[in-house]
Automatic annotation (TrEMBL):
GO MF terms, alphabetically ordered: oxidoreductase activity
Domain of life: Bacteria
Coiled coil: none
Family matches, as SUPFAM superfamilies: GroES-like, NAD(P)-binding Rossmann-fold domains
Gene3D superfamilies per record: Medium-chain alcohol dehydrogenases, catalytic domain, NAD(P)-binding Rossmann-like Domain
Protein name: Putative oxidoreductase
Organism: Gordonia malaquae NBRC 108250
Domain Enoyl reductase (ER): 15-308
């Protein structure tokens, strides 16, 4: 029997509270191309919730389902001379099965963590961050743009706002009223998505909207966007049913998206290190009570990331 680790998995597809369980599993064998990391925190994302619920498919061959794609921790074992050394603080992304006490990750996914970024922040930064970066790069946002961000208080949307503002663009962002102050603090003009959206955006925009970043995917958001700009200036990570409208739907699978997301990691860590990007934590839970965080993220939830601790 090899080395063991505790891991959060789903034994079936369904309600997190019914299918999540913590198991002891054998750690994969470490090799020259891998780094073994003792996990201190792992970031929960909507993808994890949907995967467990079966929204992304219900292939029984995938059970028990490995969950979690990002975590932070301390290097326990690494090949000498390449990348992080034993004892270094690191963030790990992308990695599959991140909800574990220990992960064995490809060396290319293990990034040195700046001292000023704590483990919880780091664990919630990269999946949302690289996605935001991909959206902004794909649309080639510049200081000539006025950008509408749907979901500007969300994990991806809030980082997209920061990145677009840092490029000099004017930004209008939809959010619930409770999040308007936070959106304003990021440098965007907030608009309530519960209002008549087209009217609200038009009255908030001092210059015509030239590009749309959608992180929500609801039809209203896409319909309003198509009223404002050509489909080629709309990029979404959530409007899967609307590809036929000619908008760009990003899932990280194209060569360009993969490049954007790889290129994003170091700038995001630098921005987190000097406070240009701040990851808020909405809640934490242990693996044993992880269903609380899954259920919270699945519903209407406060701003910020849910972070799991082994
Ligand atoms: N394709 C990809 O590569 C990729 C990558 C990452 C995430 N995603 C997807 O992107 C989506 C967002 O992820 P996330 O991590 O940013 O989630 P999140 O942190 O939960 O943020 C979602 C935001 O959506 C807002 N919202 C909810 N209903 C809305 C509506 N009707 N109109 C406008 N805004 C609304 C909420 O804002 P308020 O609270 O202010 O109402 C919330 O802040 C998820 O569906 C996720 O699966 C896709």
């Amino acid at each position: 029997m090899g080395r063991m680790t505790r891991k959060l998995v789903a034994t079936a597809f369904g309600a997190p509270r019914e299918v999540l369980t913590v198991v002891d599993v054998e750690l994969p064998t470490a090799s020259v191309g891998t780094v073994t990391v003792d996990v201190r925190a792992a970031g929960l994302n909507p993808f994890d919730v949907k995967s467990v619920q079966g929204v992304m498919g219900e292939d029984p061959a995938k059970l028990p389902l490995q969950i979690g794609n990002e975590c932070s921790g301390v290097v326990r074992e690494a090949a000498a001379g390449t990348g992080p050394a034993v004892g270094d603080r690191v963030v790990v992304y992308p990695v599959s099965g991140a909800f574990a006490e220990t992960v064995v990750a490809p060396a290319a996914s293990v990034h040195t963590l700046p001292d000023t970024v704590d483990f919880d922040q780091a664990a919630g930064l990269l999946l949302a961050g690289v996605t935001a970066y991909d959206l902004v790069e794909t649309l080639d946002i510049t200081e000539t743009d006025t950008v509408l961000v749907h979901g500007g208080a969300g994990a991806v949307g809030s980082i997209a706002v920061v990145l677009a503002v840092s490029r000099g663009a004017a930004v209008i962002a939809t959010a619930s009223p409770a999040n308007h102050e936070a959106v304003r603090a990021l440098g965007a003009t907030p608009v309530d998505h519960h209002s008549v959206l087209l009217d609200a955006v038009r009255s908030a925009a001092t210059t015509p909207v030239t590009a749309v970043i959608d992180t929500v995917g609801v039809d209203d958001a896409i319909d309003v966007s198509l009223e404002l700009v050509e489909p080629g200036r709309i990029a979404s990570i959530a409007a899967w049913g609307r590809a036929g409208d000619g908008i760009t739907i990003l899932d990280g699978s194209t060569d360009a998206s993969k490049r954007h997301r790889r290129d994003a990691v170091q700038p995001l860590l630098a921005a987190a290190a000097d406070g240009r990007i701040v990851i808020e934590v909405a809640g934490t839970s242990t693996f044993d009570d992880a269903a609380d965080s899954f259920d919270a993220l699945a519903g209407r939830h406060p701003r910020g990331k849910y972070i799991l601790h082994p």
